[in-house]
Each structure stands twice: as structure tokens, then as C-alpha cells.
Amino acid sequence: MGRVVVVGSLNVDSIVEVERHPKPGETLMGGDLKTLWGGKGANQAVAAAMAGAEVAMVGRVGGDVSGEQYRSRLAKRGLDVSHLRLDGESVTGHAAIAVAADGENTIIVSPGANARVDSTDLDAIDAMEADDVLLLQLEIPLETVGEAIRRARARGARVVINLAPYADLPTELLEACDPVIVNEHEAAQMAEAGLTASSLLTTYGSKGSAWGDIEVAATRVDDVVDTTGAGDSYCGTLAAALAAGADRETAMRTASAAAARSVGWEGAQPE
Prior knowledge:
Number of domains: 1
CATH architecture: 3-Layer(aba) Sandwich
Largest sheet: 9 strands, mixed
CATH superfamily: Ribokinase
Shape: globular
Structural class: alpha/beta
Number of helices: 7
CATH class: Alpha Beta
CATH topology: UDP-N-acetylmuramoyl-L-alanine:D-glutamate ligase
Distance between the termini: 27 Å
Helix content: 25-40%
Mean pLDDT: 93
Order of helices and strands: EEEHEHEEEEHEHEHEEEHH
Strand order of the largest sheet: 5-4-1-8-9-10-11-12-13
Number of strands: 13
Strand content: 15-25%
Low-confidence stretches: none
């Protein structure tokens, strides 16, 4: 069984419920502030660990209280955080989220230390082996993403990338990934940019997912608490299944079930 090495972002999410979104210059009273743990990298790393994989988290948090708390939290969950840097010259990434009564939200992300992840943070990749999986997203600098892909492929490791938030990547990088994971909106953006990937996995929410000619229905969900992070649960669990040697269909079914479970708790990660 291989390991999963996740190179990605870590954010602290601050959430306030409001009756409606304020107009420019307007001040509104909101509900109690909720602080949750997020960032696509950490969300997917936690999901992979919950799926039973040995997981190493690579990235940066700030040299602040939030960064130390986040690093400790992941370590208690069994993740290897020896390659998660405390950056004393930056602050931990943060997302300020306002949720209106109609369910619409606004999100402002301050990347903080995530924007400083560079090639010096990638030593964990140099120890990867052929049965390991590198899992990436696009909330860190794209130059670092490209370097991580090249180094992992040089080690013979499998690379899985979630093309979110969407950005155009060179064809050579997309072709090095197996698979490239996108939702239907990101798939449309790829098509508009004239980009293709020979190994493309597209998720369609409640309509399931497709990887080449393999189609898997979504797992039925009766009670939805919060859909935040469902896609991250899918990606992390898929990477864990692939590292364990699962075939495509089995990995997709396992990932679909994990995504369905994830909507049963508030936030992207369970407490």
C-alpha cells in the first residue's frame, strides 16, 4: 500500500450568518461567529487519512496561534506534519464567509502562508515511491504545482490533481496526472481554453461521476447538513483508494460514498 502526499492549502474559515448581504458601505448585524478548519489541501488530506491512507501534509501555515493549532490538529488525526512549515514571516490563510438566509454566500480569501509555498517545501516528494500518490489542488502558486508534478513523476509516483480553483495548466502537466479531477463547471472551462487530458475524471454532484468510459452514480443522501467540502472528500478518498491499489471504478465508488457521508456534518472537516 502506498502513501498519499498532499501538497496544498490550509485555511481557517470564519463564518457569519446574515439575513441578507450588506450593500457597499453598509453595516449589518450577524449571528455568532463560527470558526472551522478548511483549505482544499488540508480538507483532502484529512479525507485521505479518514479513508485509511498514510498521509503526509505539505504546505505552510503562519507562525501564529492558528497555524500552531492547525498543525497540532492534523498531527492528532494521524497525519505526518513534518513537512508542514510554520512560516514566521506570514499568517495562516483565512477565509471570511457570510451566509445569507437564502443560502447564498460571499467568500473573501486571504491566502497568507499558502501563497509562499515553493520548491523548498517539496522535500517529501523526493522520498516518494512508485506506489505512492501525490495529490494537488490549485490554491498554492502554480509554479510550485508544476514543480511538484515533475518531481513526483521523476520518482515514478502517481499524480492526482484537482483543478480547483480553476486555472489553465500546460498540457504537459495535465498529461502527467492520472486523473485530472474537475467538476462540470471546470470541465467547461477546460473546453473553452482548448485544454484536454487523457485521464479526466468529471464529477457531477448528485448525478455521479465519470472517468473515461466508467460512470458511477452518486451515493444517495437523505439528510444534507452542509455540502461544503464534499468535492474535497471525494478527491482525498479517491487518492487513498488508488494508493491502496484499487481500480478506477472501485476508487470512484469509495470516493462517492465518502462525499455522501461528508454532507452530514457542518464544514469541510469533521470535528
